[in-house]
Design a protein that fits this description.
Length: 311
């Protein structure tokens, strides 16, 4: 977006806010993602209230600006060209609550999934143990239908609250929401504000034991270096990591981006990677999977930036 357009649109966005929300311009997003690469958001905001978020949504609609939601950036690859329009992040306390009422946990979209798992354990509720090692927010988890150890988030979701592009808020039952492997299509164009999760009573010892077992499994197979989690969705018939391994691509690198030696479905940032390095490595893996095995790999990581959004 040109500097002139930014100057023209900015007062319109700021005038819409009443609760102290600030809008930054040309804010680098790399440091807000776990992979740590990529360009800047034209506009960036951490809304301080639902009212301000709603006002931002309507102002963007009025000005024809695209809106991107960033969670904890743990499955988010920002292209070097940056992100057009407004990027919002629900990091304010008002969006990050976790409240327990008997067997239900009401979580804000900004709440960390790990914290939800810990709170469920504290209250003797099982079913959320698998969230212990997923480094994202509830909002990102809902959008991605995050999962591990044979469970996925929508297994325990009762209702989802979200805001539409006009700034209107809705709460609907999970039964009426389509959720698939690593995706909740509804949330592609809506902002999740939170969810009610339902647990089952169990003893603290049993829950702790399951969480410890999951943690051990995870850290026995996952790199500690900076990454964006799994790069590819598992294709039919073979886990993506195993396929990458069989293609002989473990350890393959482009610039500062390298396929993890520990897990073929992770690309790690060796310190000086660019988004271009990561993208070229992704392309190289996809090309080899197609030419040698006839498999079209789909990315799980959300590639965001330029004029387009891809899945
Ligand atoms: C080391 C590591 C391990 C991981 N392990 C797992 C795992 O076991 N299982 C798994 O499923 N994932 C895993 N991931 C990936 C990641 O943690 C999940 O996909 C998580 O759900 C992303 O949440 P986030 O808040 O970081 O979202 P982000 O990465 O910030 O965003 C992901 C997508 O969600 C959208 N989004 C974010 N917030 C909202 C919102 N409020 N409303 C609507 N859309 C929103 C974004 O626009 C983007 O499209 C791992 C990642 C890492 C780095």
């Amino acid at each position: 977006m040109s500097a002139t357009i930014v100057e023209a649109v900015s007062p319109g966005l700021e005038a819409a806010l009443i609760d102290g929300t600030v809008i930054g311009q040309n804010v680098s997003l790399a440091k807000l993602t776990t992979l740590g690469v990529g360009g800047s958001a034209d506009f960036y905001s951490e809304p301080q209230s639902q009212t301000d978020l709603s006002a931002l949504m309507s102002a963007c609609r009025e000005h024809g600006l695209p809106v991107t939601v960033l969670g904890l950036g743990s499955n988010f690859l920002v292209l070097d060209s940056g992100v057009r329009g407004l990027t919002v992040r629900l990091s304010a306390v008002v969006f990050a609550g976790i409240e327990v009422d008997e067997s239900r946990i009401k979580c804000g979209a900004g709440a960390k999934m790990k914290k939800v798992a810990a709170e469920a354990r504290r209250r003797g509720l099982s079913g959320m143990e698998f969230l212990e090692g997923i480094p994202g927010s509830i909002g990102g988890g809902l959008r991605m239908n995050a999962g591990a150890m044979g469970s996925e988030l929508f297994d325990v979701v009762e209702t989802v609250r979200f805001m539409d592009p006009a700034g209107e808020v809705f709460e609907i039952s999970a039964e009426s929401i389509e959720s698939t492997y690593r995706s909740c299509p509804l949330l592609k164009n809506q902002i999740a504000l939170g969810a009610v999760l339902k647990g089952e009573p169990d003893t603290g010892e049993a829950i702790t034991a399951r969480m410890a077992e999951y943690s051990q499994k995870r850290w026995g197979s996952q790199p500690k270096a900076r990454s964006a989690g799994c790069i590819f969705k598992n294709p039919e018939g073979i886990p993506a990591g195993k396929l990458v391994d069989e293609l002989g691509l473990k350890g393959a690198s482009v610039g500062g981006a390298m396929v993890s030696q520990e897990h073929g479905n992770f690309i790690v940032n060796n310190g000086d990677a660019t988004a271009g390095d990561v993208s070229r490595l992704i392309d190289r893996i996809r090309e080899k999977a197609l030419s040698e095995r006839g498999i079209e790999l789909q990315t799980e990581v959300q590639i965001i930036g330029g004029e387009d959004r891809h899945e």
